[in-house]
Write a structure and sequence with these properties.
Elements: E1 2-4, H1 18-27, E2 30-36, H2 43-52, E3 57-61, H3 72-85, E4 90-97, H4 105-122, E5 126-131, H5 134-144, E6 151-153, H6 160-167, E7 172-176, E8 199-201, H7 223-234, H8 238-253
Parallel strand pairs: 1-2, 2-3, 3-4, 4-5, 5-6, 6-7, 7-8
Amino acid sequence: MLIDSHTHIYTEEFSTDLDDVVKRASDNGVAFMILPNIDLASTEQMLACQQKYPEKIRLAWGLHPTSVNSGWEEELKKILDFHKTYPGVAIGEIGLDYYWEEKYKEEQKEAFSAQLAIAKEMSLPVIIHQRSAHSDTMECVKKAGIENLSGVFHSFSGSLDELDEILTQTNFMIGINGIVTFKNSNLKETLHLIPEDRLLLETDAPYLSPVPKRGKRNEPAYINYIAAFIADVLKETPEKIGEQTAKNARKLFKI
């Protein structure tokens, strides 16, 4: 059994063949898919996916850092209204991204801290997106306090020092996706330092397709390639990696 802990199959890229995508995921052993929110505009598509495949899909609500602007508070309030009616398994994806957007850095930090506080209040894990912002991300997480705060640093591709710092936050897991299979990725040297009970698999579909599907649209079924690659590096079986990471995801998201 596999769990794709981070996928965006509600986007336009899947509008014509979603049934086939979900079937291929099931045929390849994917039991659950977690769909993280990006902004208010994506909420209806997310709900449509979950209501069509309620046995397969779980939702996470939150405001992505690149969606943050001067009016972020009102947009977040509306997003959280969906959570009241359609409860999610996490707050996400949230965090800081200075690679794509620097104009609203202060607003990003405010929105991130606010959503960390909301997650603690609701006793929900967080799905953290960080890009070119590790130091500020960790500062916000540490200020929020580890008590009643858990989650995953999704799409991890950082340095050994960054991994070490994240692992000091004992309630957090590490999300690994297709990046690990890329020729120029240093994650192969990092994998053995991630405790097996803190590792999650994800696709981040439609983005970051793993080798040998690189250059094509990503989808949850391709999580098998990621599991197989990690298993080869760690000298384990793909089945063992799938079972352990699914167990971790079930524990974190309570599914």
